[in-house]
Design brief:
Length: 327
Amino acid sequence: MDRRDFLKTLGVAAAATLIPTLPKTVRPARAEIAGCRIVVFGADGLRVDYAQTLRSQGGPALSSSSLNPPTCATCGGVSMTQPGWAAIWSALPAEMNRCWDNAKYRKMRPGHHVMEKIISEYTGDDLYSVWIVGKGNIVGNKLKPSGLKYRKGSHYGVYEKIVVEGKQGVYYGDESRDNDTVYGLAHDALTEAVRHDDFICFVQFHDPDKHGHWAVKNESDDYGAYMQRAWEVDSHIANLMALLPSDTNVIYCSDHGFDFKSQGDTRNNHGYSPYGVLATNFTMLDAPFVSQMSIGRLIYKLAGGDPNRTQRSPDRRFYRMFGEDLI
């Protein structure tokens, strides 16, 4: 036996001896989603420093003892090319959640939407789901894009679960709604949700982003009116929070900020204002800013899921949730 064959034989013998004794890698078991009481409030376009101003001025929700001081939730890129709600509700970056920019919203792959995952993996007996948005063209809605024009078509996972499969809950996600309409729908939906053992809810207001865009369109630097709309949304959220049991996990967040020249910014829009907000009624990671993808991880973890577990999607591609754990 020459030296090469001897070493090969020795290596095979060593491997046969050692490998059986090595600990096996155990894939984490599928999470059991139960005991889920989560409400996510969205204030579209609320910049973190403006949220802090609302808190200092006595904004009904943000200044309440129920919520911790708001921190910055950034999408990690300019907000016109990194749709924030998609990052939040997928816990994935744009290149993986298929919502590449505001002109290219595509249907998320099955199992990539966090609320869809929670509904699908729920193992209890009584889960009520709520999806209510003021801005019609955000991920989760049954909308198919054509450039920047949205028309009914592709169905997203949340729509499929609540409307098509008939899971318990309500779904209002196909059209724009003013703040009062969103509040009315949410008041009725949350009143019903808290009668159930578990619930996962999303209530999104289009303001103050909607008014910010109105100001830009009309060549107005209307920071004051923007803040009035932000206060209105904050008041609605405070009234909705009052409906919730004390053991509800509340998340108050936004998808991006908004810039105004009168406040020292270089333009009146949100194209370069990725600085959204995150506030919760529970203790989380003390950090000056977090990624929006981490909010998706947070929601899934609060529901009992393991955001570090590698999932396998039906299209046979592997993906992993991104971002840091906030709790």
